[in-house]
Amino acid sequence: MELYEGKQRWSGAGAAFRSLWAERAPGVERRAYIVPAAPAAAAITSTERSLTDKHLLLTDKYNIQLTSKLNNRLHYVFPVALSSGAIVEVPWVYLEARRGAGEEGGALPAAAPELALAADARLNYNRTLARPRGLHTAPAGLESTSLVLATGLDLFYTRVAPSKTFDLLKDDFDYYLITIVLAALIVATYSTKYFASRKMLKLAWK
């Protein structure tokens, strides 16, 4: 269930909203989906500065994690515990209440009664979790990363990056090339400074 202003905005972009004097009731959109298991616990990913998209984590007897983004807003992840004991990521856009309503200029996928759980989106890979009962999240040292702990009969700890690892360098980053370029720039800077000072000295003696 989600609340919206409606087909048209109540006020201009950036204008302050005051619910005390609001004359219009918000529009309510709701949608139900079929999932492999009923959620038993929930958590939201957290980061130090809350700049990264947030994920909502849900757990049941199995785990499924849902990630998504709509209109550059929050991302949510729902790990729902499944009988297979897996934690799977599913985009939040598939849970959007307006899905299939023809809004957002076709940015939303077509409505479907069942959520598709991709096999390659499992967070715990080939490890099966037994009786997960709770999900806990905490910020990591990197803004892009959030720590996730699933508790129950088994304990499972991992980290997720809802907005990808935007603050990390790639493994194939060419450190040697950057070092050579920086060294060349330093040498060029001091050489230019040296020759410029010599030129000024010669001009001063004329």
TrEMBL record:
InterPro entries: EMC1, EMC1_C
Topology within the bilayer: Single-pass type I membrane protein
Gene Ontology BP, a term: protein folding in endoplasmic reticulum
Subcellular location: Endoplasmic reticulum membrane
Transmembrane segments: 175-196
UniProt key word Transmembrane: yes
Keyword list, A-Z: Endoplasmic reticulum, Glycoprotein, Membrane, Signal, Transmembrane, Transmembrane helix
Family classification: Belongs to the EMC1 family.
Protein name: ER membrane protein complex subunit 1
Organism of provenance: Spodoptera exigua (Beet armyworm)
